[in-house]
Design goal:
globular, single chain, two-stranded antiparallel ribbon, binds fe (ii) ion
Length: 152
Amino acid sequence: MRDARLKEYGRDILQNETYGTLENYIQHGRVTVLEHSLRVAETSLRISDFCRKRFRWSCREREMVRGALLHDYFLYDWHEKGKGHRLHGFTHAAAALNNARKDYVLTRCEEEIIHKHMFPLNVTRVPMCREAWIVTMADKYCSLIETIAMRK
Ligand SMILES: [Fe+2]
Ligand SMILES: [Fe+2]
């Protein structure tokens, strides 16, 4: 079952028709971009819950969840050849940010999460807030799990 906080903080995003199209795009293996994004948001919440309990670090949960939901909002199939997606790893975070800006009013923290989530691949885009670091780590972890599962 999904963490209830996804709906609590991201209801408008999850109910948006364009956001629903993320179900049509594959991220890794058979995992869709929608499924991946929900997993990254949930994993981010688990990391932040752990940090709050263990280190008493608080974080802006709402912005973190919204940024995580939108971090791969690039809206194309990056597996399609010949469509200029060869540099997807380097370019999709900026594309996601552009799309997200068109459809939502983003806070600075949410923008930071989306734009910097490919650090350290995008080595110059260093996350500058705790929430962006958490989503970056959650994204790496989920991508690894999805890629390993794909190989079974
Ligand atoms: Fe990404
Ligand atoms: Fe991702």
